[in-house]
Amino acid sequence: MPEWTFLTNHAHVLLCLAANADLRVRDLATQVGITERGVQRILSELELDGYIERQREGRRTHYRLQGALHLRHPLEAHKQVADLLKLGRRA
Predict the structure, then answer these.
(1) E strand map for the chain
(2) Per-residue pLDDT tens listing for the chain (91 residues)
(3) Structural domains of the chain in order of their starting residue, each with its CATH number
């Protein structure tokens, strides 16, 4: 794993969920390269601020991303989550 990346773990979680909205916390942790507890914290923060919605479907959780919301940092606040997700699909 590199020492640093251009995107935060929050962005990585969003990109993973955009690719597969039914990922388990364990799978998210593996893909992002952080602990399950770290993923749970990020999911809670994203849900609290309205960036994702969780929906239980049996034993699984389905995540719905809110692409119309704006990014949080002042430098990119003019962009929406959907813009970030489009960037991720090009990779």
Answers:
(1) 52-57, 60-65
(2) 678 889 999 999 999 999 999 999 999 999 999 999 999 999 999 999 999 999 998 999 999 999 999 999 999 999 999 999 998 775 4
(3) 9-90 (1.10.10.10)
